[in-house]
Amino acid sequence: MLSSTRRGLVDGLRVAVGEAGYDRDVAPSDIELEAFDDEEKGEFSSAISFAIGAAAGENPMEVAHTIADAHRDHGLPEGVARVTVENGHINYHLDATAMARLTLGEIDAEGATYGARERADPDRIVADVSSPNIAKPLHVGHLRNTILSDALMNVLEERGHDVTRDNHLGDWGTQFGNLLHEYVEFGDEAAFEDDPIAHLLELYQQFEQRDGMLEDVADFGALTEEFEDAIAAERAYHTDDGKAWFARLEEGDAEAVDLWEGFREASIERFEAIYAELGVDFDLWLGESFYAREGWNDVVIEKALENDVAMRGPDDSVFIPIYDDDYDDAGDPDRADVDPSLDRAREMLAEAGSVEEADFDAFYIVKSDGSTVYGTRDLATIEYRIREFDADQSVYVVASEQNRYFQQLFVAARKMGYVDIHLEHIDYGMISLPEGSMSTRGGQIVTVREVLDAAQERARDIVREKGRNVAEDEIDAIARKIALATVKYGMVGANRGKDITFDIDEAVSLEGDTGPYVQYATTRAYSILDAAEGVPAVDDVDPTAFNDTDYDLIYHLGRYPLVLDRCEERYDAAPLAHYLLELAHVFNSFYHKNRVLDAETAAEERLVLTDATAQVFENGLGLLGIETLAEM
Question: What sequence ranges are listed for the domain Arginyl tRNA synthetase N-terminal (predicted)?
Fold first, then answer.
């Protein structure tokens, strides 16, 4: 009800502003939702009079009164009782009984689709989500990405968009040449068969650690000339052979491809088991290799050179120059303004004498040895998504350490001629451990398996300790749902932009403001409904029987679609997580202050209200990928 009321207020305010004689557009953001119990402000307010007054040179208070009078004359939406002016703000006050009737009726009629939105022309969104590297275990950073992106894509789908989830695997690049070298030199088939990811990780770390050690020894300098030559030769042997293996892979060499495909298949099999446990699905598993092996990289390189937006460096590399004034709003097709010309870059290069010293950023798409890089494959991905999906948005859920890279990618994409597609980098903070930054090379990681096992063990202990009438064979199933609620809520509810120091004990805690707290509030609602003989029809109840505590809960139920609006606008599911926690607090207050089943008055009304609350919990938790529980 609040969502439709807000839309009605925006439309009415737009008419009122015009009829009051002011030339200013009214945006949805000009109507703000306020707290239910703030009588002075009302449930909705607008500060539009300040901007209009400043532009017209008039007193905002007088402007507000003029617009409020015009809005009264035009007519207020159903459920809005009156409009007042206070300190220059236009305040809209709801009719509480009308709000209750409309909100409960809307939830009852829409059920599982309450909060959803249908669009005549939805955006086609193709999103990079999860995106782990093969031959390595899923770690807690991937867990954050996977859970954040799953919740957000659920919300975007709920809001009527056509979403395609692409688990854009990191499965191509020189590191796989190094891994092929290491496996051929030191691999153990039996160890690979027993635990492929563990063995491949060990080989990857071995290569990186040995190369780092040899580099440190070479840099130390206090060595004999013969020893220095030996160190250089040893290091070159491994790194050069790794490059050779990757070149063989790019050329389609049968031995290299067979080994690489074995690594990829084993990795995906292990990944799928974790994703199934998390309840996460993907539409695509294309990965970087797809664009290399299917010729999309070549399409991009040829296009960049033919359209004269890329230039060759002195070392035969190929790059797209990016100027300082190219970066603003590059992701927004309506606001991006880039200079695709190479003339400035040629002048800057001539003046500086080298690409490194030139006054532009070089976005490489071909290295000096002829191999491709991330940028090539990401531009190829955009090309593919436009051609094959007619995508309106290409979205990337990737940690904030890649912010600069995506700014450059978006500029390069505009210069390539991809001018209509919206490009969005949904960043999130990095995860470190109490001991310091995570490092796959150094073996300092926390795997998803470790987190899930620890959370489930913690939940299992609590269910055994506090569960009532829970059969032994049901404990694991209940503990699994509680554990996933803990981990998922913790990941989504945290400030997405902040770095996290990950403490596994805190991450799997069931106490405080957590997912299980919201689950428990839902279970409490179920218990009330189960004890009732039935839920009355919404049309048969009397909203005037509700008290202030009831109305507060109804108001919060009405906020749900507006919260999803905010999630969609921000590309962030955190507002939904915070809302569900607040709703749980409000419902628990309702439960403790009011009688329901044996109430002398309003028993039927509160059963309808409890049923509506359970529905909103189910809808919201479902978007976060959290299951509800009949018993806890």
Answer: 7-94
Beta pairing partners, 393 = 125, 422
Q: Could you tell me the two tokens for 275?
A: 């994703």
Q: What is the DSSP string of 75-108?
A: -PPTTEEEEEEETTEEEEEE-HHHHHHHHHHHHH
pLDDT for 472: 73
**C-alpha closest to that of 511 among 559, 462, 564, 447:** 462
Q: What are the residue ranges spanned by the domains of the chain?
A: 1-94, 174-251, 287-428
Instruction: State how far the Cα of 627 lies from the Cα of 632, in Å rounded to an integer.
Output: 12
Could you report the per-residue pLDDT of 403-440, keeping only the tens digit for each? 999 999 999 999 999 999 999 999 998 776 565 554 55
Superfamily the domain 1-94 falls into: Arginyl tRNA synthetase N-terminal domain (3.30.1360.70)
Whether 152 contacts 570, CB under 8 Å: no
Average pLDDT over residues 456-468: 80
Does domain 287-428 sit in CATH 3.40.50.10350? no
Residue 66 corresponds to which tokens in the numbers above?
């003029």
- pLDDT (tens digit per residue) in 19-62: 999 999 999 999 988 877 666 778 899 999 999 989 989 999 99
Contacts of 259 (CB under 8 A, 6+ apart): 180, 183, 184
Single-letter amino acid code for the residue at 540 = D
Query: What pTM value is reported for the model?
Result: 0.91
